[in-house]
Design brief:
- By secondary structure, the chain is of the alpha+beta class.
- It has 2 domains: about 180 residues, no CATH class; about 220 residues, no CATH class.
- The strands form 2 sheets. Strands 1, 3, 4, 5, 6, 7, 8, 9, 11 and 12 form a 10-stranded mixed β-sheet that branches.
- Strand 3 and strand 4 form a beta hairpin.
- Helix 2 packs antiparallel against helix 10 and helix 10 runs antiparallel to helix 12.
- The two termini are about 25 Å apart.
Length: about 425
């Protein structure tokens, strides 16, 4: 029998301990794979969405909330800002480009965003054949995900609902008409319905007018719209939710946020700074999990070592007998190494497969509940490092038992038996 056959026979004989050691190894590998996949894809999503956005200006509140709501569209806005103030800021010498964002409504949980065509153009979004951008009120262009999930096509109509999540009051009397669908961009635009700011203002002017006519307490209603991030056109002039800014000069990074925060009623937040802060928070937890995963792999390596060491003592007579029949020391050394590496390889393969399957199953929930898109059907070059690491752990675990087998004293061992 060759080394592989002998190793296989022994591992089958010790199937329970072998399976337990391989499973521990696999869990450690799977945890590392999950961390690599999730971190790489989240960083890619951050990078795609932050491209060219130097500053976000919105209502006073949490800077992180402002970034999450206006750039990633994952949180509620901090409030509204005056359109007059926003337009004045757009003309500042340190500002190269601004993109207005007006929030307030949704369609089946997807946000309807009032903006300009500069928004999709900033992310190099392209229209599918037969579509166009909005040219008048109540025309909309759908992101790729919105179109795919809703089944809407150019020429179809739909009514938005009040608020940023499902369950709000339906604006049934003011339907939107789909005039275009965007191709996949890999950014938040994929899950938005884009329209002109005039559409948002028109709907909420009409909404407020209807509430006035019903005597439903317009003052409280208007305040509610402000809190939800609506563009309110009654009493205080038109408003938007936020402004995405690109600097005209590196000097702006020092001067502009300070000016806005100290001399206006608005708040300026740096996406790069807030995302770095978010990565710091996430990084602490990620590092802890990563260390635990490496601990599990090391523990599995120790399990392999213990199993082989005990097995060597149990099989000492058999190994000595093999030597007496002509088996060279190198073959016995190879036998121990083969058994250890076999367990490590099984754990590695099982861990990689489990990690990818876990991310893929988790991705569906993440996409539906958080609108964050990751996939397990992605293989990273960083995962290749797990191969030499796993083989090294397996080899190190077998080293001492293999050396002892190599040095076994045939005569003493057979005589004792």
């Amino acid at each position: 029998m060759n080394s592989l056959s002998l190793s296989y026979a022994y591992l089958r004989h010790k199937i329970l301990s072998t399976a337990l050691t391989a499973a521990t190894f696999a869990v450690g590998v799977a945890m590392i794979v999950v961390l690599l996949l999730v971190n790489a894809q989240l960083q890619n999503e951050f990078s795609n969405n932050l491209k060219g956005i130097d500053l976000v200006v919105g209502g006073k509140g949490s800077p992180m909330q402002l970034i999450l709501s206006s750039v990633f569209h994952l949180d509620t806005p901090t409030g509204n800002i005056s359109l007059d103030e926003a337009e004045k800021l757009s003309r500042h010498s340190l500002v190269k480009e601004t993109i207005p964002i007006a929030l307030g409504d949704n369609y089946q949980g997807y946000r309807i965003v009032g903006t300009t065509q500069a928004y999709p153009e900033h992310y190099n979004a392209r229209l599918k054949a037969g579509g166009r951008y909005w040219q008048k009120k109540m025309e909309t262009v759908l992101g790729a995900e919105v179109a795919a999930k809703s089944g809407l096509n150019p020429g179809d109509s739909f009514a938005g609902s009040h608020g940023l999540t499902t369950g709000g009051e339906l604006h049934s009397g003011l339907p939107y008409t789909v005039v275009g669908i965007l191709e996949q961009t890999g950014t938040a635009i994929d899950r938005l319905a884009l329209t002109g700011r005039e559409s948002i203002w028109h709907i909420h002017e009409q909404h407020d007018h209807d509430h006035d006519a019903e005597g439903a307490g317009h003052k409280n209603g208007a305040q509610g719209h402000h809190d939800d991030g609506h563009a309110d056109a009654q009493g205080h002039g038109r408003e938007i939710t936020s402004l995405l800014i690109t600097y005209s000069s590196p000097l702006a990074a020092v001067e502009l946020p300070r000016q806005i925060n100290s001399t206006t009623s608005m708040q300026a937040a740096s996406p790069a700074f807030e995302v770095a802060r978010l990565n710091t928070f996430m990084g602490t937890g990620t590092e802890t999990i990563k260390y635990f995963a490496w601990f599990l792999i090391a523990l599995a390596g120790f399990g392999i070592f213990t199993g082989l060491y005990n097995a060597m003592n149990e099989r000492r007579y058999d190994l000595a007998l093999m030597r007496s029949f002509g088996a060279r020391p190198g073959k016995l050394f190879k036998l121990m190494m083969t058994e250890s590496l076999a367990v490590a390889i099984v754990g590695l393969v099982a861990g990689v497969v489990t990690g990818h399957l876990f991310v893929e199953s988790f991705a569906a929930w993440l996409a539906s509940s958080k609108h964050i898109h990751i996939t397990g059907r992605l293989f990273l070059i960083e995962e290749m490092w797990l191969v030499p690491v796993s083989l090294a752990v397996g080899a190190l675990a077998a080293l001492l038992p293999a050396i002892r087998v190599y040095r076994i004293d045939i005569f003493k061992t057979l005589v004792r038996r």
